[in-house]
Design a protein that fits this description.
The chain has 215 residues and is of the alpha+beta class. Helix content is 28%, strand content 25%. It has six helices and seven strands; from the N terminus they run αααββββββααβα. The protein is globular. The N and C termini lie far apart (58 Å).
Length: 215
């Protein structure tokens, strides 16, 4: 029997009302709750781990202790740990999977991707995800014009250096020429990307001063 539109909307609202507190409990909506763009300094500050590496496994599964919770296990072969303890490989668990992706804003992963991931500290149940929804997942691309390897996130690096005082950042972090040029362009020619070594160097410098005020 067909439901009336009002009844269907009511059911949808009730489902949402049940899901949101659950997600808050799981600690997987910290990026969702704050939908504004986050800049690179904020990403570095909020991340528990920052990993430069290559995705070598993506696996659907269920939570080890909570069998009703669908999860994705992602294994990354580490090139460099930009923040967090040293490791050769990192496996993390993200809420939802390809068969039951409850949280649409969370990014997906592909085996073979070279990435820089800014991951939130794990929740009590072991979940994590990139800072600022998909903003904290950067993928390496080959720049067809210049031949450089560059990094872009799901927002095409939009506002990556917004709300930063370029002069203050340059003075405190002793930026090189490439880093100064990146920070001086708040939208960094959206879509062009940032050269990998320049990006990672900037991240290291921001990580080294986590409590600095850059505005």
């Amino acid at each position: 029997m067909c439901q009336s539109p009002d009844h269907a909307n009511s059911n949808a609202f009730l489902r949402s009302a049940r899901i949101v507190p659950l997600l808050l409990l799981l600690g997987v909506v910290s990026g969702w709750a704050n939908s504004r763009s986050v800049n690179l300094a904020e990403m570095a500050s909020h991340a528990g781990r920052i990993i430069h590496g290559r995705v070598i496994e993506v696996r659907d599964g269920v939570h080890p202790q909570q069998q009703r919770l669908a999860v994705t296990f992602v294994k990354v072969q580490v090139v460099e740990m930009l923040k967090g303890g040293a490791a050769r490989e990192v496996t993390f668990m993200q809420y939802g999977n390809s068969r039951n992706q409850y949280v649409a804003h969370l990014p997906r992963y592909s085996v073979g991707e070279e990435v820089v991931l800014f991951l939130y500290p794990e929740s009590k149940l072991g979940f994590t995800s990139p800072v600022g929804q998909g903003q904290g997942k950067f993928v390496v691309h080959q720049n067809t014009r210049g031949g450089q390897r560059v990094l872009r996130n799901e927002q095409m690096n939009h506002a990556l250096f917004a709300r930063l005082d370029a002069a203050k950042v340059n003075s405190r972090l002793a930026l090189n020429k490439a880093e100064r040029e990146a920070v001086a362009q708040p939208n960094h020619r959206a879509g062009t990307g940032i050269e990998v070594q320049t990006f990672c160097s900037l991240v290291r410098k921001f990580v080294a001063q986590p409590k600095a005020n850059w505005q």
